[in-house]
Amino acid sequence: MKKIKLLIISCICLLGSCTKDLVSIDYGDINPEIFPKSETDIEAMVNSVYHPLRGSWWDGIFSTSERGVMMISDCTTEILTGWYDEKLQATQHSYMPDHAGITYFYDRFYNKISRMTMTIHLIEESTVSEELKRKAIAEVRCARGLLAYTLFDLYGPLVIAPLEVLKNPLIEAPLARMPYDEMVNFIEADLLAAVEDLPHPAEAAYGRFNKALAKMILIRLNLHEKRWDKVVSLANDIIDYNHYALDADYVGMWNLNGAKSSNEVIWAIPCDYEGTSENQWQLMVLPGVYLPKGGWGTIQSTWWFYDTFEPNDKRRTMLIAEFTDAEGKTYNRANPDIYLNYGPLPLKIHEDAARTTSFTTVDIIMYRYADVLLSKAEALANAGGTPTQESMDLINEVRNRAGLGNRQLSNYSNITAFNDMLLTERSHEFWCENGQYRADLIRHNKFVSRALEVRQSEYTSPDKQLFPFSRTMISEGKGLFIQNPGYN
To answer: Looking at the DSSP assignment, which residues form a beta bridge with residue 269?
Structure first.
């Protein structure tokens, strides 16, 4: 592993709730004797931790392109199909350590965890008030927990550099990956600590972290670990905030201002035309012949996925199965050309045909209240090994919003049938959001079998449930950094 370096903190100021106010500040090498000293310094340092968590092709882990975890994660499932570069590797499950588009997320972002660790230390050592320190550190720890969980979900345990190593950046210190249980505890500790001092959802600025977001990430972590009782408890906490509810207009949440006005959205990443935080989804999805405004057409869904929806499901609305170009030629499943040959166009968000650049102002929705309800439903059923009426009622609440009728408990009385049904509902509800469905399939041991069923993949295996690390990371670990199984 490279020498752990104290990176220059390039602070991105999120003033208020609008990304148009983002300003890049370069502080150079930080001297703790003079920085941070003021509330403004602390604010700048806290704002900097949002920088890697935004949408940006160049350096945002939640980019809505092939450089973001959503597209690559969904490509490993039946939701998306890619036919070249890392998207094809994800679709085929053919990724290996030499595939930079797959190892990219760790290579690019693991050291941001170290930056956040140093940020916490510098805030702790500052002379500002204790109240300000607590609030600031809560946001940083939420960011660190979110980033660490995101990478852990993709790669397994990470290298987490201790503060003592980070304070001595000129001393070469190869490090091993953290043991599995310690990794889980590290993420959990960050998020639990963040909950204490983050604001209530009603008091948090749009686009900033709040208590419900930290608990939502904890729900994802505890689903990953199948700690069902904790999932139920966390879900109840969010429900008891009495702040969130299902939005009656599912499609409307992805309108130009839908996320901002929805009481279902737990956290969204604000986007703008200037690319401060970018949403490139229309550019990625829409082919050049699409009217009124096309894009590059780099991705499609699958007809297999499309066929799993009930015909009147509102959640299928933006899976575009037919369109007509400027010359009057209609493309559909029977006449796909190269535009619908794998599946419909997964246009989850508003077309934003008036957009003036490659970007859109539609915000990137990351977590929603529907996830709280479906997670609680899964946990209730699996905790006792038997589906319950309460768990089915939660699923039906989400289905009813989609314009669908109730599922009957009597038809899903065993846990296998229930989980299969729930996985389908999760895929229909969260397709092309934050890429979490890959983890859902893995949790229920469907990742490999689904790739065989939908793709007939000759590359898939249980080892492909984790992405590989790059050979560079392994080499620089000097024997301490161990590759994931199946990639040596």
So the answer is: 364
